[in-house]
Specification:
With 180 residues, the protein is an alpha+beta fold. The chain has helices at residues 23-30, 33-36, 48-65, 110-124, 140-148, and strands spanning 8-9, 13-17, 68-74, 80-87, 95-101, 130-136, 152-162, 165-175. It has an 8-stranded mixed β-sheet, sandwiched between helices. Helix 1 crosses helix 3. Bound molecules: coenzyme A.
């Protein structure tokens, strides 16, 4: 049997593979326009079917491309609060980090805790040395998460298309220490 999508634990969080039964919660969190607004690949309005279809791809993209999509859940109570991913976009060789949280979970350091844990896992377990990320310039919370997770801003990224508009974007890179 091949490897399976990992589960990663931190002080407060359990980053675990999504299950089909998570789709309703994912849809409820992504129906919020404030969450969706800065996410390039999340349609709005959002439907539960999108979540079902997305979750159904995870095993295949992990097996075929090593892409990791994880539910961010609280160790205490198991509530699903968001998602974090390490993808390899088409035509790219570097991994790219992405994440979102339901709005009521913002501002408690959860995204930073999840991002640091996934970056550490990629470095230590997968041997990944370089990870890219990008965010809209108008998304200072995400830029702060990246900065606190060891990424440095390296200039502009291609504009992010969202709802028929192009948004200026910043590019970030994480490079693991040589002895890491
Ligand atoms: C971006 C997002 C994941 C951040 O999640 P979070 O758990 O609230 O993030 P954290 O608490 O770990 O860190 C947020 C940091 O941004 C800072 N911040 C928040 N709003 C800010 C603003 N308007 N200007 C500057 N900094 C801001 C916070 O102060 C915090 O930094 P600090 O700990 O140094 O004070 C969350 O806002 C979200 O899901 N947004 C919608 C989806 C999204 O944009 N995803 C990223 C796409 S690139």
């Amino acid at each position: 049997m091949g490897a399976s999508i990992p589960t990663i634990e931190t002080t407060r969080l359990r980053l675990r593979p999504f299950r089909a039964g998570d789709a309703a919660t994912v849809a409820a969190l992504l129906e919020d326009p404030e969450v969706s607004r800065t996410l390039s690949s999340v349609p709005y309005p959002y439907r539960q079917q999108y979540a079902e279809d997305w979750i159904a791809t995870h095993e295949d993209v992990f097996t075929a491309r090593g892409e990791i999509d994880l539910a961010i859940t609280m160790r205490d109570g198991a509530e699903l609060v968001g998602a974090i991913s390490l993808l390899v976009p088409d035509g790219e060789s570097l991994h790219e980090l992405g994440y979102w949280l339901g709005r009521r979970h913002w501002g408690r350091g959860i995204a930073t805790e999840a991002a640091c844990a996934l970056v550490d896992f990629a470095r230590q377990t997968l041997g990944v040395r370089t990870i890219r990320a990008r965010c809209m310039i108008a998304n200072p919370a995400s830029a702060a998460v990246l900065g606190k997770s060891g990424f440095r801003r390296v200039g502009r990224a291609a504009p992010i298309e969202k709802d028929g508009r192009r948004h200026d974007a910043a590019a970030f890179v994480y490079e693991s220490p040589r002895d890491g």
